[in-house]
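INPUT
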Amino acid sequence: MSAWHDIAAEADVTVGNPAIARIGGREIGVMRDPRTNDLIAIRNRCPHSGARLCLGTVAQRIEGEVGGDYQLVDRTVVVCPWHGWEFDASTGECIEDPSFRVAAYPVRVEDGRVLVEA
Amino acid sequence: MIDCDIHVQISKPEEIIKFIDPAKRDWFRNQAYMLGLPAYPWNHSSSWYRKDLQVDENEYPGATPQAVAKDALDDQGADIGILTADDALSVGLMENAYSAATLARAHNDWFREDWFPVDDRFRGSIIIPTQDPAAAVAEIERCASDRRFVQILLPSAGERPYGDPRYLPILEAAAAHGLAVAIHSGMEGMGLAHQSSGAGTPTLYIEWHTIGSACSIQAQLVSLLAHGTFRRIPDLKVLLIEGGVAWLPGMLWRLDTNWRGLRDDTPWMDEPPLETMKRHVRFATQPLEYTNGNDELLWQMLAAVGAPEILCYASDYPHWDGDEPKWLEQRIPEAWRQAVMHDNAVAFYGSRLELPVLQ
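OUTPUT
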């Protein structure tokens, strides 16, 4: 049964400074997207080899059609700090290998507090 | 059976020189028997050739269409034999790009005039002055209308790996004409080419034959996949010749691992490189590595990266390290034989192969 949990003061969650809380035995982190200023809530464990995912970066996805083509697209990813695997910030899916997925959680702000449903 | 790698030897330079413009003939004559092609840093200690084929010291094995038809087609049971250059594989590495264009043109005319008419089982490879991409494209365009040419032939050693954008016009021209691109191992450290391993110049032939034959082929495979060349040229077909295959699973798994973590450097790689390879790249079987009794393990590993569909038989006639077809047939799994010895090459080369009607 999921519930909303108070994680941190919104003002304390800035780019590069995630808020991390332990909920039901799992570490969940809230990160700030530098492009949209949105909050992202994601489990703090990379499903690849166990890195603390929220110590990675939130970035705008780059895609390309052919060699030498780099285009920023409207998609936010969490990049693992260890091996650079990219996870969709909304779904938690590893884009290059969907058999790997990290749990992503609903997040909202209420009265200046960050709430995560987990 | 289809043999994808039969090396034609130039025994008598005048056979090539006669196709060269008279004004340029003396330049080539003055380069002695190698015709200005770069010299080999390493040589086999006794002979490049199967000893049972050596005719005499004045004529190499595989130097006449009649000898090749007998040795490599009749005696081996080949339905089709794809002729590849031998020393002239390095034409695209000559320092002089103008001479390279001239020699490539003559070699292609030699195939067309002196070889193809002798036996309708012969197919051929177009060699090109790779160091001058515009001239290389022109040579492809000149030869492509002769459908007995089934591929262009490039050495695995080079100035830059073939995924580099400078080579796109060459690869695009080949694909546009339905020609495969065969990349044959060798020529490391020769002419314009870099050394093979990056560890420094090998001392011994065995070092080159082990490393040179594999490392540069691996580099070409990784380059073409990393640059997204197959995405840019969806009809591009590549055959990698004589680089071995036992390393293939390890290399592809390594590339697949790196791709996941480094994709922001190559965002055009939109699927695991292993999957791209399976659609576009084939591997000539020779020299199939000895496994010290672990053949079953080798088949399992190759199956994990697309075998048997990715494998095409090649003899490497008339070289000392060739794989005889009956030996290979007996060695590979029975369920693979028809595909590896015949069907995969038919599918790979497509309509250019046009198998002759058996009488």
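end of record. The longest strand of chain B covers residues 149-155.
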